[in-house]
Structure formats: structure tokens, C-alpha cells
Description:
Elements: H1 3-20, H2 24-42, H3 53-61, H4 66-85, H5 112-120, H6 127-142, H7 146-150, E1 157-158, E2 163-167, E3 173-177, H8 180-198, H9 217-231, H10 241-252, H11 257-264, H12 269-272, H13 276-290
Antiparallel strand pairs: 1-2, 2-3
Helix pairs in contact: 1-2, 2-3, 2-4, 5-6, 5-9, 6-8, 6-10
Amino acid sequence: MNDVDSAQIDTYLDALWLEKGLSQNSIDSYRRDLALLTQVLAKTGRSLLQADAADLRQAISTRKSARSAARFFSCVRGFYAWLIREGRIGADPTLGIDAPKTVRALPKDLSEAAVEQLLAAPLIDDAVELRDKAMLELLYATGLRVSELVGLRLEQLGMNQGVVRVVGKGDKERIVPMGEEAIHWLKRYLSESRPLLMGGRQSAMLFPNRRGDAMTRQAFWYRIKHYALRAGLPRLPSPHTLRHAFATHLLNHGADLRVVQLLLGHSDLSTTQIYTHVAQARMKSLHQQHHPRG
């Protein structure tokens, strides 16, 4: 990557961070996509400011899936829109390029019975497994992202109010109810398990590792797989399975889609609308059950 292209990318990402408050993970993802574009352009001897539609189509074609191609194009389109606004180029090379079509896969469902099996798998007489029990219960009760769960700090718990204060994507904050079951296991973990695991050390993290640092997402994912195998689940859950189960089960029990949107921390209702099949199925069932001509 030449110095000019590198400077353009850095300036754009700084502007994105200031305007949208994106997380570091999102910024890194944008940087990777734009770096890939510079690699494709390097083969033609052109820079980011000289790219044309053919160059962009070539770059899009290098992506291995429709989903990654769509994400890549979205990043590139935003970058060139910014270059236009800044007066750095005169024509937008993304115009006339159709966005790659994707079919958004529905989340893998985990039944309420399967969730109960998973939540019952930890052996609560063991300090580590009692911690894991509290984490699983909190995850299912709140629909947190795994990254949000492992990053929780003690100060974010409102035990008396029964809520947790979550800092999600783009540093956006939301308040999520925890429910009595999760609160019960959190109290047990905090009084019985955490002191043993910390061994007198201090940590601001709610679920620290033995060094007092935040647990990694990978470490918690390993724990989920461990309990799924113990529970005999036919399909290993993904790191987001309990988050999806949280949303699906709420809708199954009559929750409004917009309420689920707020609880999940989705900034746009369209993100939550992958769950509309659940809401529609419930409405159809209620209509058949209660309408005189259902």
C-alpha cells in the first residue's frame, strides 16, 4: 500500500470513528476491506483515488461468499461517498454497481427444553462451574452478546434494581432486566464462587479469569461447548445461540418486536426483523385459536 492510499484510509477511519462512534473491531474490519482493495488496485498500478467500476467489480469478485462480498461493497461504497463529500474525487466509481445479493440466514433455533438442559449442565458445587452457571443464566436472561458478557464490570450490575447496564456496539449503552433466576445465580456466584476463584486478588471484572482480567470470548465459547456435550444436545450451539434463543423465546411468549430490538441493542429494527418469522407464526397461531373463522 502506498503512502497516499494509507493516509486516505487513516483519515477516513478517523472520520468514521468521530461521526459514528464505531467500535475498534468495526474500524479494524473496515481497514482490512480497504487494504484488500489497495492490493487489487496495485496489480493495475492504480491508487484508491484512480479506481474505476471495473476495478471495484474485480475486488468484489475476490470475496469468497455473498455475505463477505456485500459487506466489502458496503465498506467501499461508504469510503467513496466520503471521498466525494471531501472533494477528493470528482466521480463515484461505485455508481452503477449493484450491491451483492445475500439471503440472510435465520438464526439456528434452540428450543426452550434444550436451553433448560444446557443451563442445568454445570455442577454448581464446583466454583468454576457455578461461575459458568451464572454466566449462562445471565446470557439467556438478557440476550447479551458474548463480548458484552465477558466484558461486564461489577459496577454495571444493578442487583437492587434487577438490571444490568450494557455497553454495546459503538459504545452505545442500554439497560436490560436480568430476571429473578439470573439474579439468584449471580448472588450465589458473587458470594460463594468468585471469592474462591480470585483467591484474595482484586478485579473490577464481573467474570474475571484467574489473573483478574476479562475472560476471552474464545474461552467462554469453549465452556459452552463443554456443557452442550455434557447435556447431550444434538447440535453444538454457536456463541450467539443463547442470544437468538432469548429473542425467539420472548417473541414466542408475546413480546413486541420493538421491545426485543431495544433489549438486543439493535440500532435499526431491520436487524431484528430476521425474527419476524417467529412473530408471524405466533400471530397465525393466535388467529387460528381465537378468531371465529380461524
